[in-house]
């Protein structure tokens, strides 16, 4: 296997709410982080290990990774060359898809974190091949079919207890997001105020939040800042502006946390977004030329 010395990233966005990445990377350690999305991933080549919930799960080639929003984890790549294909469903896209697939049932969550399932692997590799060949032929239905595939393989659960827990945790996160939007000062007593809204002490709230999310409230707030930066960069703002909008002290701080979360630097992400936009503009221009009436 050829050794990878640099990272390669391909990115596609479907319906404005689903991001797909094909990432090639050398061996590198992981650090604990989380995402605000539902993630379905596949180890296409190489190997990794995933730490979550106090346990370590090996990820040989062909492994499927299933993670729910804000499940803290650390992925370490172990081979000299590793390739990972992953779908990030925004919570809005996930809710919409599940409502259509499972009408009347409570919100579904993924059962992972790491499984060996040939059916799901074939579905992921087929979708990846279609994207690499002609991304214009891949629509929202083709991507959300992966959710149905997970249900068919009993990798989803819909129950009232899960929905109740998700609602409580969502309320915690909403308050922490509000604290971030309010330019929360880490030295302030904002966490105390949030805890009081739940009738808890600061310690009780932090313990409950960590139990639900796998990380302390302050660390979660940083993850929300990273998500804000990602959206800002996707919208086309500069990296300096994105850092400021997200509330980071400087661009280098944003870069460290962004890479920890997404496995790439903000600059790398900015380039793949720009490349995708350029390709879309090129296709649009070509279509206009082909459909324009000729001069008589």
UniProtKB/TrEMBL annotation:
Keyword annotations from UniProtKB, A to Z: DNA-binding, Transcription, Transcription regulation
Superkingdom, taxonomy of origin: Bacteria
Stored Pfam families: AraC_binding, HTH_18
Entry GO MF terms: DNA-binding transcription factor activity; sequence-specific DNA binding
Domain HTH araC/xylS-type: 173-272
Name under which the protein is recorded: DNA-binding domain-containing protein, AraC-type
Species this protein is from: Microvirga lotononidis
């Amino acid at each position: 296997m050829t050794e990878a010395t640099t990272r390669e990233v391909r990115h596609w966005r479907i319906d404005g709410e689903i991001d797909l990445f094909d990432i090639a990377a050398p061996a590198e350690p992981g650090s604990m982080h989380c995402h605000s999305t539902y993630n379905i991933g596949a180890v296409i080549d190489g190997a990794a290990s995933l730490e979550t919930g106090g346990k370590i799960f090996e990820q040989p080639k062909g492994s499927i990774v299933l993670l729910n929003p804000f499940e803290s984890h650390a992925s370490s790549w172990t081979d000299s060359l590793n390739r990972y294909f992953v779908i990030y469903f925004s919570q809005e896209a996930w809710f919409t898809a599940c409502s259509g697939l499972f009408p009347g049932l409570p919100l579904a969550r993924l059962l992972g974190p790491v499984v060996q399932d040939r059916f799901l692997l074939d579905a992921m590799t087929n979708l990846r091949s279609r994207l690499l060949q002609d991304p214009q032929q891949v629509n929202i239905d083709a991507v959300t079919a992966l959710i149905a595939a997970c249900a068919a393989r009993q990798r989803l659960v819909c129950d009232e207890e899960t929905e109740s827990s998700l609602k409580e945790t969502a309320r915690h996160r909403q308050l922490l997001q509000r604290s971030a939007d309010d330019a929360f000062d880490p030295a302030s007593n904002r966490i105390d105020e949030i805890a009081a809204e739940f009738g808890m002490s600061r310690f009780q709230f932090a313990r409950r939040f960590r139990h639900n999310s796998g990380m302390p409230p302050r660390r979660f707030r940083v993850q929300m800042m990273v998500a804000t930066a990602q959206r800002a960069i996707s919208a086309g703002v500069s990296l300096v502006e994105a850092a400021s909008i997200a509330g980071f002290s400087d661009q280098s701080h944003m870069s460290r946390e962004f890479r920890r979360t997404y496995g790439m630097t903000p600059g790398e992400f900015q380039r793949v977004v720009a490349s995708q936009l350029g390709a879309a503009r090129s296709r649009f221009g070509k279509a206009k030329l082909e459909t324009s009436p000729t001069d008589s």
